[in-house]
Design brief:
single chain; 263 residues; Rossmann fold; binds hexanoyl-coenzyme A; binds NADP nicotinamide-adenine-dinucleotide phosphate
């Protein structure tokens, strides 16, 4: 398939991806890298970071890895500071570290609920806050990875729904605060994306996956590449007047339910 982006559009740009060692976030890191950006990835597991770096290097991406937990502000600030120092600033920051499990609100402990809020929402605040001083502006772009759960309540997902709704509002709040300095802040809301840890946790059987897909207007899961393309678009010069936007990449899921079942 022809690449819709011009080769090398991100040459000279630098992108930091929090939670970039696997899944959707790694696909975003690889996409920005394939278009020429130097990439920094950050997550907890040294093994996952090493494996992701090996994949990125194999694909010709100039990438560096950092380990730490997004719940630890100092660790986040240190990694972002190191990445920024190497290349004299950062152009794009993606915040996508997240945790999920399936549990009823009454069946999880307060610490379980807190854990997801702290990884997703507080972690995103940490990443954005620590990035601000290093951003090369104007033209800098911050991108948060939310989820359809921010806008559509799903059973057994009260923790994720709450955390992602917070991320959406944080996205808008910082777009407003940071707009005058030329920094754009947006969020992507993926629907169910195939071959990811997130969907392995949410749909454990093929029957369940089929049921979820049938409630999506496009009748299928999305791909990591489709989310990564939206991320590339939002970082690109085609999106220079887009800020404070919460863009779905969900096959129409939030538009409505195509099954015709009412109530
Ligand atoms: C109930 C659970 C639980 C479960 C953990 N807990 N798993 N409670 N049901 N299945 C509880 C623990 O008992 C503990 O509470 C608290 O949560 C913290 O657990 P820890 O294991 O100590 O936390 P930690 O090591 O920080 O791990 C965080 C994690 C883990 C979220 C629990 O699963 C993780 O690291 N996940 C990262 C990968 C991931 O989830 N990827 C998918 C992202 S998808 P107590 O009270 O016992 O101390 C996504 C949205 C997808 O975000 C949307 C799809 C459409
Ligand atoms: P994933 O592969 O598990 O990605 C999560 C990443 O975050 C991993 O690299 C993980 O690495 C890192 N991470 C988790 N907790 C962290 C912490 N405390 N500190 C630092 N890094 C941490 O899952 P995914 O399914 O691709 O999801 C990626 C993003 O897309 C998430 O924001 C998720 O909410 C969103 N999303 C996914 C779907 C879907 O269908 N999969 C749908 C909507 C939204 P370590 O384990 O090494 O820390």
């Amino acid at each position: 398939m022809t690449d819709v982006f011009e080769a090398g559009i991100f040459r000279g740009k630098r992108a930091f991806v929090a939670g970039g060692s696997s899944g959707i976030n790694l696909a975003i890191a690889a996409r920005l890298g394939s278009l020429g950006a130097q990439v920094g990835i950050f997550s907890r597991s040294p093994d996952k970071v090493d494996a992701a770096l090996a994949m990125l290097h194999q694909n010709g991406v100039d990438a560096a890895g950092y380990t730490g937990d997004v719940r630890d502000y100092d660790a986040v600030a240190s990694a972002i500071g190191q990445f920024a120092k190497v290349g004299n600033g950062i152009d794009f920051v993606v915040s996508g570290a997240a945790g999920n499990f399936v549990a009823p609100a009454i069946g999880m402990s307060p610490n379980a609920f807190r854990t997801v809020i702290e990884i997703d929402l507080l972690g995103t605040y940490h990443v954005m806050r620590a990035s601000f001083e290093h951003l090369r502006r104007p033209g800098a772009s911050l991108l948060n990875i939310s989820a359809v759960q921010s806008s559509q309540a799903i059973p057994l997902q009260s923790h994720v729904c709450s955390a992602k709704a917070g991320i959406d509002m944080l996205t808008k709040a910082l777009a407003v605060e940071w707009g005058p300095s030329g920094v754009r802040v947006n969020a992507i809301l993926p629907g169910p994306i195939g071959d990811t840890e997130g969907m392995r946790r949410l749909s454990s059987t093929p029957e369940m996956a089929e049921r979820i897909a049938s409630a999506i207007p496009l009748q299928r899961f999305g791909t990591k590449a489709e989310v990564a393309n939206l991320a590339a678009f939002l970082c690109s010069d085609a999106a220079t007047y887009i800020s404070g936007a919460i863009l779905t990449c969900d096959g129409g899921q939030l538009a409505g339910n195509p099954t015709g079942v009412v109530g």
